[in-house]
Amino acid sequence: MATAGVPEIPLPTTIKLWPVKDLVPYHLNPRLHTEEEVDELVEQIRLRGWTNPILIDEDAGILAGHRRLRAALKLKMKHVPVIVLTHLGAEEKLALLLADNQTTIHGSWDTELVRATLALMEAGGLDIGQAAFTDDEIRALEHHDPFKPTTDPVTGGQQVTQGDVDAADGAKKDKLWQEENLNRVTCPECGSDFYIKPEVA
């Protein structure tokens, strides 16, 4: 039920298993993927299963998920999860075809948090290559930040925990705020810390 003054958002209620052979790629799909990029997705599916349904219209035409279809074909899958969108007009389908790809390009990485996440993966014995970052990308991250994925951000040791990462982040902020001569104030309601400039007499 829509809230007064707020438009109702169409929500899919079902994910269906659809025969791969019945899916119809859009003949003018402008998004290009190399075989290497498809193979990368194939490996992710092998590692963690199918995590993202293909979006199709009433006629099984693919609106989002052409690379997923190619990966499914490489894996010789007979059925894949899909969400059927029935509320879009012809032009809206074209817009989704572009927007679904374009919006994934927008945004950036917090390189310190990426590195911290990779460190937690490695500390747990998981190959950081499973995060889909290339060796060159990881080296580029290391080049722009002194924090190394394989070291504890607090002690410099090899064992990394989430508590270590949080402590390192807090220590970094405290150092910054001390240099700026700010005062720490803790909210009595939510418990969050805020930093303010002291009043000047």
Could you walk me through the main structural features you see in this protein, from its secondary elements to its overall organization?
This protein has 201 residues and is of the alpha+beta class. It folds into two domains: 16-105, Conserved hypothetical protein from pyrococcus furiosus pfu- 392566-001, ParB domain (Alpha-Beta Complex); 111-175, no CATH class. 39% of the residues lie in helices and 12% in strands. The strands form two sheets. It has a four-stranded mixed beta sheet with strand order 1-4-2-3. The protein is globular. The relative contact order is 0.09. Residues 145-162 have low confidence and may be disordered.
Total number of beta strands: 6
Whole-angstrom Rg? 23 Å
Count the DSSP helices: 6
Report the span from N to C terminus.
Answer: 55 Å
The computed structural class is alpha+beta
Q: What is the strand arrangement across the widest sheet?
A: 1-4-2-3
Per DSSP, what share of the residues sits in E-state strands of 2 or more residues? 5-15%
Name the helix and strand elements from N-terminus to C-terminus, one letter apiece.
EHEEHEHHHHEE
State the fourth-level CATH superfamily of the largest domain: Conserved hypothetical protein from pyrococcus furiosus pfu- 392566-001, ParB domain
Give the overall shape, derived from the CA principal axes: globular
Return the CATH topology of the largest domain: Conserved hypothetical protein from pyrococcus furiosus pfu- 392566-001, ParB domain
Largest sheet: 4 strands, mixed
Average per-residue pLDDT, rounded, comes to: 78
- Give the CATH class of the largest domain: Alpha Beta
Low confidence ranges: 145-162
At CATH's second level, what is the architecture of the largest domain? Alpha-Beta Complex
